[in-house]
Amino acid sequence: MDLFISKYFNKIDKKGRVSLPSNFRNALPKANRNEIILYKSIKSPSIEGCGVGRLKEIAKRINNLDFFSEDYDDFATSIFSEIVTTNIDKEGRFLIPEDLKLYAGIKTEAAFLGQGHFFQIWEPKKSLKNTEVSRRRLLEEKKSLRMMLTQQK
Amino acid sequence: MDLFISKYFNKIDKKGRVSLPSNFRNALPKANRNEIILYKSIKSPSIEGCGVGRLKEIAKRINNLDFFSEDYDDFATSIFSEIVTTNIDKEGRFLIPEDLKLYAGIKTEAAFLGQGHFFQIWEPKKSLKNTEVSRRRLLEEKKSLRMMLTQQK
DNA sequence: TGGGTTTATATGGGCGTCAATGGGTATATG
DNA sequence: CATATACCCATTGACGCCCATATAAACCCA
């Protein structure tokens, strides 16, 4: 299963290290499980991450936006210029850069949220609130979309 | 017959393990009978589960949404981060995560309800009450539906 | 059809392995 | 030289794997 699934709460030690959930490590391509990329989420105060292979996918999606629009500039700038790559040590831990932790408000603990082809890293309490809000929006406002997911093939 | 049908009451041991009814195990695709997915039911205080195959189907559909939209996030968060995958051991048992047990009020015993393409896990007493209520609703309020189901072609 | 035997399922428990976490030390980088 | 990061080792608890047993269902044979 090459998807990032489930939610995990891991601690950040004195050295700033945090374990990438083993489940997520297994979702990375076997070829390169020692490296991931991180960047600020555009839509929420969280950090998004994935394997380096997904860079191409991200580029493609941005390319589908109107090249002359403000969005294009904003996205290209926000994402590409801010992407960092970090190494995963033999115990499966990595370091979250200070500016990213600041952006997400993360201090001593991090919530890892599977998002399918990528994952998000949140400050735990914020993640709970966000999950709650998303769930309610889905329940109350988006019946037609929900149908898309619940109908049998 | 690859459908989840019937009702079973199984015990949860000290280690938190519970047997997936063998009938349900047989309803899983032969390809992958060692893994199932679990998630909070949207409509009731119960846990829903099914084979992992359904997950890939959902992933595909979500991937078709506009990546930068709010919808995408709502779905990804509500679904991928809320879903849990658990392994089934050689005796056919698995672990129910604590937060899911809490959500369903399950402690030492679990009721498995076949629902066709998926199944539900309830706290036994609640399941009895729910079955009763569902049955009465069906009888009293949904005569038209009943007609549809029972009329001979 | 009855009685005995096998098989499968649910359940219990021991134990090794792995994941998450903590810390010491070497190495690198400026 | 000072700080940050990589590597190595240790600890703890959870989980997976294996084996055991009891009850129930299936089977077989006379």
Tell me the number of structural domains of chain A. 1
**Low confidence ranges of chain A:** none
The CATH topology of chain A, please? Answer: Chemotaxis protein chec
Largest interface: A-B, 32 and 30 residues
Q: Whole-number average pLDDT of chain A?
A: 88
The class by helix and strand makeup of chain A works out as alpha+beta
In what order do the strands lie side by side in the largest sheet of chain A? 1-7-8-4-3-5
Which properties best describe this structure?
homodimer; 153 residues; alpha+beta; Chemotaxis protein chec; 6-stranded antiparallel β-sheet; two-stranded antiparallel sheet; 8 strands; globular; DNA-binding
Describe the structure in your own words.
Chain A has a 6-stranded antiparallel beta sheet. A two-stranded antiparallel ribbon of chain A has the order 2-6. Chain A is of the alpha+beta class and 153 residues long. Chain A has a single domain, classed as Transcriptional regulator MraZ domain (Chemotaxis protein chec, 3-Layer(aba) Sandwich), CATH 3.40.1550. In chain A, a hairpin with a 4-residue loop joins β7 (109-114) and β8. Chain A has 6 helices and 8 strands, in the order ββαββααββαββαα. At the A-B interface, α5 and α6 of A face α2 and α3 of B. The structure holds a DNA duplex (30 and 30 nucleotides).
